[in-house]
Design goal:
By secondary structure, this protein is of the alpha/beta class. It has one domain: 3-Layer(aba) Sandwich (Rossmann fold), CATH 3.40.50.300. It is built from 9 helices and 8 strands. Helix 1 crosses helix 2. The site of magnesium ion has 3 residues, from helix 2.
Length: 248
Amino acid sequence: MSDATGSSITARERRMPANAGTAGSAGAAGRSMLTYTDIPADLAEAVRGILNRHELREQAGLPPTIAVTGPARGAGVTTVSQALATILAQELGRFVCWFDCSWMRTGRADHDDGRPGLIDILEDHGQLSRALLSSNELPQLVCLSPGSVPEPSRNQIVRSHELSELLRILSDEFDHLVFDLPPVLGHANSLALLRQSDASLLVIRHRSTTISQVRRSLESMDPTPNLGVVLNQYRTRIPAGIRRLLGE
Ligand SMILES: Nc1ncnc2c1ncn2[C@@H]1O[C@H](COP(=O)(O)OP(=O)(O)OP(=O)(O)O)[C@@H](O)[C@H]1O
Ligand SMILES: [Mg+2]
């Protein structure tokens, strides 16, 4: 990582982007951000396990840009991506940007918080710092949630030079970028952003995601390296004491 002058700086030496706002635990456009203490314990363990296994396996640092996605809606991608970003910031002390990519799909009203939307940012990258929000509890975690984009523009934006340039700026500014992507099955644009990521993380939901969905998702996400699969919201009727005896 280097600053605009090319000199090497660490996350702790780096300051927040000049105009980044603070919003307690709330993200831009009113999206609430999971706080560290609110991360479900089993999810936090699953995320730590994936990060630790990657470091052991690869004998290398964690990928700078991680795209989190699921096969279908409601798997828990927002929850898991926020948990990942929060753990990277809180436990590893990294400077992290969580990027809400729901602008790639319909179903969200335009945000009206007075902050620049994605189109504003792409037209003038100088607007970026006003769109970033950090939390008071964890200033090294910043979220970018730039509202929605009209349907015809989305498909162009995702392959645009301006978006690539925005991602480059964010990569220079932060140790890690964590994308909260729409489901990979049925959203071709998610695949386009996956291709610009260093690694993927697939979220599947216990008793909901099918084996076929997992297989098709992993196939479509290839060749972006996969960090792991989070089995989210695992529920079992086996009592906790017996699970411990079984080594679960
Ligand atoms: N590990 C978890 N423990 C408890 N609740 C969870 C967990 N994961 C997700 N949830 C809850 O399940 C719901 C759906 O989760 P989330 O919004 O993260 O899914 P999503 O995949 O982002 O959905 P969408 O496709 O609609 O964006 C939310 O109410 C969330 O709080
Ligand atoms: Mg979501």
